[in-house]
Amino acid sequence: MAPWHLYVMAGMYIIAGLMHFIKPKMYMRIMPLYLPNHKLLVYLSGIAEIVLGIGVCFDATRKLSTFGIILMLGVFLSVHFYMLSGEKASAGIPKWILILRIPLQFFLMYWAYFYAYL
């Protein structure tokens, strides 16, 4: 049986993915300008978070899903760095929080990796 904290992580990604559909404008305003079709990318990333969150809950898909989460978080780093580029890009979030999000991404990658070999 998988540890309870695996399901906490799964729930976190599922809820985050659902938020892409509930509040898409919140995500679109932090998208780097150089990326095309922000709305589509917001919806696709929401689907990815939901699918990967569900995938870590099952033995058959856990390893693939954890590596998918790690890859997704790596891609999301571009958004975090973009948000540091200026006041408009920061969406009003204080710079110290934006800076703290960078190491948080690496912690989340490690957390996902922890479950790859359960």
From TrEMBL:
Membrane-spanning segments: 6-22, 42-61, 67-84, 96-116
A Pfam family the protein falls into: MauE
Subcellular location: Membrane
Species the sequence originates in: [Muricauda] lutisoli
Keyword annotations of the record: Membrane, Transmembrane, Transmembrane helix
Principal cellular location given in the protein's record: membrane
Membrane topology: Multi-pass membrane protein
Protein name: DoxX family membrane protein
PANTHER family reported in the protein's UniProt record: DOXX FAMILY MEMBRANE PROTEIN, MEMBRANE PROTEIN-RELATED
Residue span(s) of domain Methylamine utilisation protein MauE: 7-87
